[in-house]
Amino acid sequence: MKATSMRARLRAEMTDEIKAIARRQLATEGANLSLRAVARDLGVVSSAIYRYFPSRDDLLTALILDAYTAVGDAVAAAEGAVDRADFAGRFLAICHAVRDWALANPHEYALIYGSPVPGYAAPTDTVAVATRAVTILGRVIEDAARAGLLSHDDVVLPPDVAGEVERIGETIAPSVPLGALSRALGSWLQLFGFVSFELFGQLNNAVELPGPLFDHQMRAQARYIGLPLL
C-alpha cells in the first residue's frame, strides 16, 4: 500500500473514531460537545483532535451531516421498496422510516430536529442533505399529482401562506398544485410532531401503544393529502 493511501486510511479511521466518541457524548451531554472531553476519551492530547476537526462546530457539522445522511438513507430504502403505484404505501413507508430511525437513534434525532445548539449556525452545505427526506416525499406527491389524484382546488390559501408554500414547493415538488402541496407539508409537520412528542416524553403516561396510534394518524394524513389507501 502506498504511503499516501495508508495515511488517508488512518485519517479516515481516526475521524470515524472521533465521531463515534462524540456520538456517545451526545447521549450523556446532549449537543454540549467538548473537544477536550473527546480527546480524553480517545486517549490523546487535545491538540491532536484539532488536526481532524479545527473546532467544536466543525465536529458538530460532521455529526449533523452524518445524521441527515442516515435518516435520508433510511427513508430512501423504505420508500424505494414499495410499488410505485402505491402512493399511500410510499408515504407510509417514509413516515415509518423516520420514526424507526428516530427511535433507534434518539440522540442523533435530537441533534438535528431538537433544540438548536446555542452559538452554532449550520453552514449552507448542510441544506441539501437536510432536505433529502422531504424531497423523497415530494416525489411521491408529484407522482400522485401526475396520476390525477391531487387537485384540492377547494383549498384557499391566504396570499402570504401561498407564497411560503410556493417557495418551498420550488425545491421539493414544483409541479404540484399549491392546495395539495400545503396539505402534504402539513402532514410532514404532523409526522415530526408525533415523533418528537414520543421521543421527548410528551406521550408518557398518556399513550400506552404509540406504534398503532402513529400508524393510524399517518394513514389519516395520507387520506388528508388525497392518497388512496390500497
Sum this structure up briefly.
With 230 residues, the chain is mostly helical.
List the topology elements.
Elements: H1 3-29, H2 35-42, H3 46-49, H4 56-80, H5 87-104, H6 106-113, H7 127-130, H8 132-146, H9 159-172, H10 178-199, H11 210-225
Helix count equals 11
Mean pLDDT, to the nearest integer, reads 92
Structural class: mainly alpha
Main beta-sheet annotation:
none
Low-confidence stretches are none
Annotation, overall tally of beta strands: 0
Q: Specify the helix fraction band.
A: over 70%
Rg from alpha-carbon coordinates = 21 Å
- Per the principal axes of the C-alpha atoms, what is the gross shape? elongated
Task: Work out the strand percent.
Answer: under 5%
Order of helices and strands: HHHHHHHHHHH
- The termini sit apart by 55 Å
Overview of this structure, please?
The chain has 230 residues and is mainly α. It has eleven helices and no strands. The protein has helices at 3-29, 35-42, 46-49, 56-80, 87-104, 106-113, 127-130, 132-146, 159-172, 178-199, 210-225. Helix 1 crosses helix 2 (35-42), helix 5 packs antiparallel against helix 8 (132-146) and helix 5 (87-104) runs antiparallel to helix 11 (210-225). The longest helix has 27 residues, at 3-29. The radius of gyration is 21 Å and the shape is elongated. The chain starts with a helix and ends in a 5-residue tail after the last helix. 31% of the residues are buried.
